[in-house]
Fold:
Amino acid sequence: MDSPSAFKNIWGWLNENFEKVFLVSGLLTIIFLITFQTLYRYIIVHFVSSAGAAVWTEELARYIFIWISYLALSVAIKKRSSIRIDIIYDRIPVRWQNASWVVVDIFFLILTLTICWYGWTQIERLMEFPQHTTALGIPYIIPYLVLPLGFGLMALRLLQNLRGQTQLCGPLDTAIAVAFVGAIIAPAVLAEYIEPLPALFGYFGILCVIGVPIAISLGLSTLATVICAETLPIEYLAQTAFTSIDSFPIMAIPFFIAAGTFMGAGGLSQRLLALADEMLGGLYGGMALVTVATCMFFGAISGSGPATVAAIGALTIPAMVQRGYDKYFAAAIVASAGAIGVLIPPSNPFVVYGISAQVSIGDLFIAGIVPGILVGLVLMTYAYLYAKARNWRGEARKRTVASLMAAVWEAKWALMVPVIVLGGIYGGIMTPTEAAAVAAFYGLIVGVFVYREIDARKFAACCVESCETSATIIVLMAMATLFGNIMTLEDVPGTIARAILGFTESKIVILLLINVLLLIVGTFMEALAAIVILTPILLPVVVGVGVSPLHFGVIIVTNLAIGFITPPVGVNLFVASSISKTKIEYLARTVLPMLGLMILVLLIVTYIPEVPLFFIGNK
Structure:
């Protein structure tokens, strides 16, 4: 092979896999570190009296976590996978859709270059005034290098995207896109002063509507406000991009995602499906009932609505259609049941809310159990009655206690995950983050050595997918911290609370208004984005009328779970539509009765707090 060809192959491999090498090794390292920390506390210290606390593991894991989170964002940039609002994008011609990506990439590039530049100033300051970490004593310059290097790599990936996109669009459409960006930027650059709140919310609204990812819209609107109103020093953006995610509790998010990914890839869903089929498969609508039950089981492992729909729907939708079910009903029941995944613990939305509202994540997990079961039961009841009216019978075969026990035994490794997570947290053995890491480690061991369905290639893909998925959430939380700090400086939450309480002090009316608001927001904004933006605004309002932050966490997550099946951003609908090859508009009609039943559960959860707080008391 000649040297130019060899160089081209090496460059091509690096271009495709550079970040992935660090993501796989980094995720595996932090899972092992936190699992070791947990085992060390209870096993090694017990047998070795001279052993001290392994405090270095948490510190090292936190810094690796920050690095892989921002490196994973480069992978997400390449794939264009992000949390954004596509209302306008989906309704414009393909020509302008292509041009809109030029606009999005330029705005994204502005933010990454800003953080990269001011991140380097942090490095220069640390070079001048060296500081060292508490446990390991490593120079702070090493973890902080992620700002210039990580965001610099993002800028490089964005430039690669822009190069390809401008070639696709041609000179004219590219020039129009650049002019459009200039027109939006102009007020922030040219105006001497703009009031903070109009700048903050104005730019955030405009950027979201034109399809800029929500996390980037939060960061850019904060940057515009800093420039227009000089509310904070611009260097604050880079510093907060690091400090806002330098948090041990936030690390639970990639761990729970990894646990679900490993278990899903390891053959978990088929075993849970077999168990649910033994329990319910012989009834009217047996396969639909099995689908809901399996989604409840899988939700106790994945913590993600779309992941649940993808894993279970791929198996059950074709099976239901094959047995004579209407394909729209089959897709709708999977999409609806998939929403249970964010209610039954572990749940990423509960983790994000717990961090945002400073509420116990363990308490939130327990409080989500009853609402999750209620949603499952009402969907099962509807599926049974709907199927009975159409004479859709379950599979006629002999089911015995012995066959049920055999199915339970086959699924035993999967069923242990919620026991590890909830038992570990409520037994006082592990923190939520440690429980998540142990669950991820357990899922990896089961998938590789017990079920033996995860090979090296699938393992690498699982790690990259987990990092990429969690990175979009992590950067959203980082940028929301910037956005939220300006809201706090301007007393936005307090002003809104006083305005609503001035309008009415009725707890019933206020909760009804907030539910309506959250249901509307859930139709166009992704759940995690809504939580990080709305929690600091609405929490003072509900606390003012006597609702506990814990109870409100269940209300907000139940609302936003319903958002998973409401167009135009109902991601569960899109996943189910893709699997079933059905039109989204017809699927949306079929899901309406199920949507109504879920709203009924929401009202019960809202107005009867004893229901969600059944297992933990009135906290």
About this structure: The first helix runs from residue 3 to 47. DSSP finds 27 helices and no strands in the chain.
